[in-house]
Design goal:
- This protein is an alpha/beta fold and about 475 residues long.
- It has 14 helices and 18 strands.
- Strands 2-1-3-4-5-6 form a 6-stranded mixed beta sheet, sandwiched between helices. A 5-stranded mixed beta sheet has the order 9-8-7-11-14. A 5-stranded mixed beta sheet has the order 10-16-15-12-13.
- Helix 7 packs antiparallel against helix 8, helix 8 runs antiparallel to helix 9 and helix 11 crosses helix 14.
- The N and C termini lie far apart (about 125 Å).
- The protein binds dinuclear copper ion.
- Dinuclear copper ion (CUA) binds next to loops.
Length: about 475
């Protein structure tokens, strides 16, 4: 058997379609190509010619390779790498070390044994029977079948424990303020479902990662690559369909909760809520009462009609769970059915200026009887202008910036303000008379008292009636 016949014979037996050549000498690849062309009957193609081991690995990543032909006479190539990786290692691939030198009639195969022409028959037969890596891939044993069952049981138990811990931690009642309204029930239920799902998803990701870090660590000295996994249709379909069903499920539960939260009770008590920088005002049109504290009867739905006089605010009582934005020039609605008596705090949940954090008000949830008593006590408007002015002072939020004790706030204190001479930012002075107080209420930026910023909203001219302004002036005059 001459050399050409022998080489052709190797190729015939191994029947490769896609060949990778490893050699630094261009003549080697040329010579081999020429030999391959002589084999008319096979469609062998050289997919790449590389010069070293690392390049060969990259070529294998990119192409399906049936056979690697290494130049036996190229001393720069470290054959040990190829033998260790493809013959003894995990990534078995057919490797032929082939000498194309003219002398001698031999092919040198994977383990560098020199075969006589006659011996190569046996060896080729053995190799031909072994499936190549490529065809093993086509038979496709899913990678998880290659993992020990005890690891599966271990990781499932680990994920279950992580999920349970997450559920216990997140569903802890102390994480939320105690609920105090009917509307809080569906919202807390939804919260609880979410916590459970979040715990499971977290455990699923963190569980596999932590388990792998512990049990599938690289052994010292192991330099081999991990198996190359090329997608998995069943897994991808599963992790698309399951979340889709979950999200649709949550959409249904969410829509249901929204319907419950917005359910209309025709007997609802209507209260007009006005937000402004930086106070709250509550009007009970049924009783003609204006208050700076929100009084609510227990177990009766309150329909809050909300509006802002200046910028965006947001009405929020954590115990009631629901939250609603207030917009200037457009009313919004919020329904609350308090089911627990007690005092709560309204907070503004929309940043609205430099005193946003102190835009708070009290809520009092009381029995229907106590509420009725409060209504009858407050129903009759006082005929004393100073008393009416005092009520406006709190209900319209003047108290947020103007103290009565002489301490300056965002604005000057009302104590002793009337009749006093003031110096303004532009250096002018004036004595605070009724006209000055009136101008300062309806057009607050006209005169800025020295040392203060122009912070007062210019909206009081619209929100207050003439009578209310006069009441306020009377009240301010009374602060000696
Ligand atoms: Cu109003 Cu923040």
């Amino acid at each position: 058997m001459d050399k050409t016949t022998l080489i052709c014979y190797i190729f015939l037996m191994l029947n490769p379609r896609r060949v990778l050549i490893v050699s630094r000498h261009p003549l080697y690849a040329q010579g081999l190509r020429r030999l391959l062309q002589q084999r008319q009957q096979a469609d062998v193609s050289v997919v790449a010619v590389v010069t070293g081991f690392d390049e060969a690995l990259r070529a294998i990543e990119q192409h399906a390779i049936d056979l690697i032909v290494v130049d036996y006479d190229d001393q720069t190539i470290n054959r040990e790498d190829f033998l260790a990786h493809f013959v003894e290692g995990d990534s078995k691939l057919r490797v032929v070390l082939l000498s194309l030198k003219e002398d001698g009639d031999r092919a040198i195969v994977y383990d560098r044994r020199n075969f006589a022409a006659a011996q190569i028959d046996t060896w080729l037969n053995e190799w031909a029977e072994q499936p190549s890596q490529i065809s093993a891939k086509k038979n496709n044993i899913p990678f998880w079948r290659t993992i020990d069952m005890k690891h599966w049981i271990g990781v499932i138990l680990f994920i279950a424990v992580l999920t349970a811990s997450g559920v216990m931690l997140l569903n802890n009642e102390r994480l939320l303020t105690p609920a105090a309204s009917l509307q809080a029930v569906p919202i807390d239920r939804l919260f609880s479902y979410h916590w459970t799902l979040i715990s499971f998803l977290f455990a699923l990701v963190a569980g596999f990662v932590l388990y792998s870090i512990i049990f599938f660590r690289r052994k010292p000295g192991d330099e081999t690559d991990a198996p190359h996994i090329e997608g998995n249709n069943a897994l991808e379909v599963t992790w698309t369909i399951l979340p889709l069903i979950t999200v649709i499920g949550f959409a249904v539960i969410g829509a249901d909760a929204l319907a419950e939260v917005t359910r209309v009770d025709p007997q609802a008590l209507e209260i007009k809520v006005t937000g402004q920088q930086w106070s709250w005002r509550f009007e009970y049109p049924e009783y003609g009462i204006i208050s700076d504290v929100l009084y609510l009867p227990k177990d009766r739905q309150a329909l809050l009609v909300l509006e802002s006089v200046d910028v965006l605010h947001s009405f929020w009582v954590p115990e009631f769970r629901v939250k609603q934005d207030l917009m200037p020039g457009s009313e919004t609605e919020l329904r609350i059915t308090p089911n627990r008596e007690g005092a709560f705090k309204i907070m503004c949940a929309e940043i609205c200026g430099n005193k946003h954090t102190s835009m708070l008000a009290d809520v009092q949830v009381m029995s229907q009887t106590a509420f009725d008593q409060w209504v009858s006590a407050n129903r009759v408007a006082s005929d004393d202008p100073v008393a009416r002015g005092q009520q406006s002072y709190t209900t319209y939020g003047c108290n947020a910036c103007h103290s009565l004790d002489g301490n300056p706030g965002v604005g000057p204190s009302f104590k002793g303000i009337y009749g006093k001479e003031h110096t303004f930012e532009d250096g002018t002075t004036a004595v605070a008379d009724e006209a000055y107080l009136y101008e300062s209420i309806v057009n607050p930026t006209a005169k800025i008292v020295k040392g203060f910023a122009p912070a007062m909203p210019p909206t009081f001219g619209q929100t207050l009636t003439e009578e209310q302004i006069n009441d306020l002036i009377a009240f301010i005059k009374a602060q000696k």
